[in-house]
Prior knowledge:
Elements lengths: L4 H4 L3 H22 L1 H9 L21 H6 L15 E4 L9 E4 L1 H17 L7 E4 L7 H13 L2 E3 L6 H10 L4 E4 L1 H13 L11 E5 L5 H11 L2 E8 L4 E7 L8 E3 L4 E6 L13 E7 L10 E7 L1 E2 L10 E2 L4 E2 L4 E3 L2 E3 L3 H7 L4 E12 L2 E10 L1 H6 L8 H5 L2 H18 L4 E5 L15 E3 L5
Parallel strand pairs: 3-4, 3-5, 5-6, 6-7, 18-21, 19-20
Antiparallel strand pairs: 1-2, 7-8, 8-9, 9-14, 10-11, 11-12, 12-15, 13-14, 16-17, 18-19
Helix pairs in contact: 2-3, 5-6, 8-9, 10-13
The structure holds adenosine-5'-diphosphate.
Amino acid sequence: MLFSPEIEQLPLPQLRALQNTRLKEQVRYLNARVPFYQRKFAEAGIDPTTFRGLEDLHKISFTRKSDFRDNYPFGLFAVPETEVSRLHCSSGTTGKATVVGYTTGDLEIFAEVVARSLAAAGCRPGMKMQNAYGYGLFTGGLGIHYGAEKLGLTVIPVSGGSTDRQLQLLQDFRPEIICATPSYAQVLAEEMLKRGIAPDAINLKFAVLGAEPWTEAIRQQVESGLRVQATNIYGLSEIIGPGVSQEDVDERGTGSYIWEDHFYPEVVDRLTGEPVAEGELGVLVFSTLTKKAMPILRYWTGDITNIYYNHSVKRTHVKMGPIRGRADDMLIIRGVNFFPTQVEDIIASLPEVSAYYQVVATRRGSLDEVEVNVEVAEHVLREIGLFDTLTEELVQQHDCLMKLKGSFAKKIKDNIGLSMRVNLLGCGQLPRSEGGKLSRVKDLRDLK
Ligand code: ADP
C-alpha cells in the first residue's frame, strides 16, 4: 500500500524540481538563521540568493557528527528554543550523544515518513503494532509510535527489552506487526522456540526491523521464527530518526526506498568525498529538504552503502542497499579493508552455522589478527548429541565440526582475502540483544 501515492510516484523530473526548490529554500533559511551554515556558505563562496540548488550542492562542505558536538546542545538550531516541540538524542553508539530538535511541523513530517514506511512494510490501518523500539531520548520508539498512529494502527508501546512481557503481549493482544531491532527480533524468535510457544499462539504477519545493520541470514531466522515478512527501516537522529528509508514488503532484498522529497541522498568516496557512480559503495550523505528546527546539509552519516534507481513500477524514489557498516567500523587488517558484515554473507551461505556471530580484532606484536566466533546451527548440534558449551576440545573430537570450521575459514580466505581464526560455539554462547542495538564487532587492538 502507498500512504502518499502522489508523492511516492512523482515522476523523476518533477521530484528533482521539487528537491531543487526545497534545497534553495533551505539554503536561504539556514543562511538567515544559523551562524554555522552562514560561515560554511561564505567559505564556499556561496551566495544564497543565486544558489542554483542540486547542481551547487557539492560546493557545501560536509556536516559531521563532531559539528553537532561542537555546537552542543542547541547551536545548530534554526528556531528559538520556544519553537522547539521535542528534543531527542542519538543513541551514542559511536561517542557522546548528539542533540536534535523538532518543530511541530518537523514532527508532522516525521510521522508522515514513518507512516509511509510502515505502509510499505505491509501494515494496514486497523492492525495492531507492538513497538519494541526503545522509548525515550532515542528517536526509535516515539518516532515509530506517531507514524503508526498516523497510519491508523493501534500501537502497543511496550518499548525494548522485557522479553517475558513481549512474549505475553504477543500472545494476549495478538498484534499483526512488531517493530524492533533485528538483533532483538532474533531474541524473540529464539525465545519462542525455547519456550515451546507454538507459532499459531501469536498472530504476527510483519516485522519492521532497523537501527543496526542486519543481513539475509537474520531475515531468514526472524521470518521463520516469528512467521512474518520482515522489512528494513533505516534512519538516523541527525536527519530525523527512523523512516528515512524503507523496504517494500513485496520487494524484499532489493533495497529500501529513500523518501527523497524530504531527504536528499548522495553517496561519496570514503577518502576523497567525491561522488561515486550510481550503484557503487561509499558513504551515505544526506541533506534535509524540509526540516525547520534543525535543517542539516550534506550530513556525513558514516554509513556505507550504495544507491540506485531500479525503475520499480511502485515508486519513483531511489533505493539504497543494506548498510555494510559504518565507515568507522571498517577494520584495516594487515592492509586489507574489511567490513565485519562481509562475514555475514558467508554465514548466510553455510546452513550449518546460525546467524549469531561476532568479529574480534586483536593485535599480537605488530600483527593484526581477526577471529570469528560463530554459533553452530542447533540442528547440527542435535544430530551429534552435543548440548553443552562447545569447547575447542569438543570441536576437535567431531569430524563434522572440524570440517565445518575448515570450510568456513576457507570461504573467508577466498572471499575476503584474509586468514581468520574461526571459533565454533554452541547455542546461546554469544551475547544477545537486551532490547536495543547489539554490537557484533570487538576491536581489541590498541591503535594509538
Ligand atoms: P547512533 O549513531 O548513536 O547509533 P542513531 O540512534 O541516530 O544514533 O542511529 C543511527 C544509526 O543507526 C545510523 O547512522 C546507522 O548507522 C544505524 N542504522 C539505523 N537504521 C539502520 C538499518 N536499517 N540498517 C543498518 N544500520 C542502521
